[in-house]
């Protein structure tokens, strides 16, 4: 079997065009232009690439966007002061503080300082809580991107066995919540799936992964999912973005393409979908805040 490619670049472009059309219609109706403020602290090269890509995607879709670049020596008080300013700025509907932050800064304190209505990453505990009880204000971007990459390629997770390798706050945990939840009008990305979270302490990772109809690799370990872990005909989503010898590699071994029915590539799979969902959330934030 040679896996069908789950093309996030193409789907991302389609969905960005949908956002751009909604933004244009909104502005033509005299409403506010959605605006995203991104904050980046320090010199992490991967973070700078992500923020640049987010900035360009916003501009292309007609959103207002600002990037605040702070030095690696920034203090927590300075960063909190900037977040407070963005919280109060009526032109800013979404605030994104790029992670990781330098070690002198308490990441939790900063994420809690972002006013929940502008928390387009869905990292604030209030928004995580709303997601957990099935009434999401926003969906976190990467899990939401995975949901659409599956659903819009004809792989509805409803009733399926999903195994997620990885339990991070950014991907594994919120994705597991979303995919296990009941799909309702208030929770359209509820997956109605049977979900297992696997991680570094899972006893027999291969046996657990082979149960999956849909296997999501989100461990942050290069090629941790090997062909023998994949049941023939399963759908595999690779969330990994690991840098190896200057090259971007995923969490899924190349050989999985010969076993899986469908596989998302790295790059060009989940990454472009994450950015697309950020645009979706910024538009939603403008609608929440300004109407
Ligand atoms: N670092 C890695 N992924 C993300 C993300 O989705 N949002 C932010 N803010 N930082 C990240």
UniProtKB/TrEMBL annotation:
It comes from the Bacteria. Residues 6-121 form the Tetrahydrofolate dehydrogenase/cyclohydrolase catalytic domain. Homodimer. GO terms for molecular function: methenyltetrahydrofolate cyclohydrolase activity; methylenetetrahydrofolate dehydrogenase (NADP+) activity. Belongs to the tetrahydrofolate dehydrogenase/cyclohydrolase family. It holds the Pfam family THF_DHG_CYH_C. Its EC number is 1.5.1.5, 3.5.4.9. This is Bifunctional protein FolD. GO terms for cellular component: cytosol. GO terms for biological process: L-histidine biosynthetic process; methionine biosynthetic process; purine nucleotide biosynthetic process; tetrahydrofolate interconversion. Catalyzes the oxidation of 5,10-methylenetetrahydrofolate to 5,10-methenyltetrahydrofolate and then the hydrolysis of 5,10-methenyltetrahydrofolate to 10-formyltetrahydrofolate. The gene is folD. Keywords: Amino-acid biosynthesis, Histidine biosynthesis, Hydrolase, Methionine biosynthesis, Multifunctional enzyme, NADP, One-carbon metabolism, Oxidoreductase, Purine biosynthesis. It catalyses: (6R)-5,10-methenyltetrahydrofolate + H2O = (6R)-10-formyltetrahydrofolate + H(+); (6R)-5,10-methylene-5,6,7,8-tetrahydrofolate + NADP(+) = (6R)-5,10-methenyltetrahydrofolate + NADPH.
């Amino acid at each position: 079997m040679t896996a069908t490619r789950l093309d996030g670049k193409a789907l991302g472009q389609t969905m960005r065009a949908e956002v751009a059309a909604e933004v244009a219609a909104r502005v033509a109706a005299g409403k506010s232009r959605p605006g995203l403020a991104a904050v980046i602290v320090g010199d992490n090269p991967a973070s700078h690439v992500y923020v640049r890509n987010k900035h360009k995607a916003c501009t292309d879709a007609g959103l207002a966007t600002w990037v605040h670049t702070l030095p690696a020596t920034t203090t927590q008080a300075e960063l909190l002061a900037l977040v407070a300013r963005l919280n109060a700025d009526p032109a800013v509907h979404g605030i994104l503080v790029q992670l990781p932050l330098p070690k002198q800064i308490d990441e939790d304190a900063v994420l809690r300082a972002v006013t929940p209505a502008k928390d387009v990453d869905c990292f604030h505990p209030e928004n995580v809580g709303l997601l957990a009880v099935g009434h999401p204000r926003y969906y976190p971007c990467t899990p939401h991107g995975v949901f659409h990459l599956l659903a819009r390629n004809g792989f509805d997770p409803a009733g399926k066995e999903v195994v997620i390798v990885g339990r991070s706050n950014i991907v594994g945990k919120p994705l597991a919540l979303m995919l296990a939840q009941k799909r309702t009008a208030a929770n359209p990305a509820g997956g109605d799936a049977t979900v297992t979270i696997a991680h570094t302490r899972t006893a027999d990772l291969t046996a657990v992964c082979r149960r999956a109809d849909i296997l999501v690799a989100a461990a942050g370990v290069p090629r941790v999912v090997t062909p023998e872990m994949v049941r023939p005909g399963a759908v595999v989503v690779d969330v990994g973005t690991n840098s190896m010898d200057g090259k971007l590699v995923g969490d899924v071994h190349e050989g999985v393409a010969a076993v899986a029915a469908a596989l998302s590539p790295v790059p060009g799979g989940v990454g472009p979908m994450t950015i697309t969902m950020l645009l979706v959330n910024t538009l939603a934030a403008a609608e929440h805040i300004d109407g």
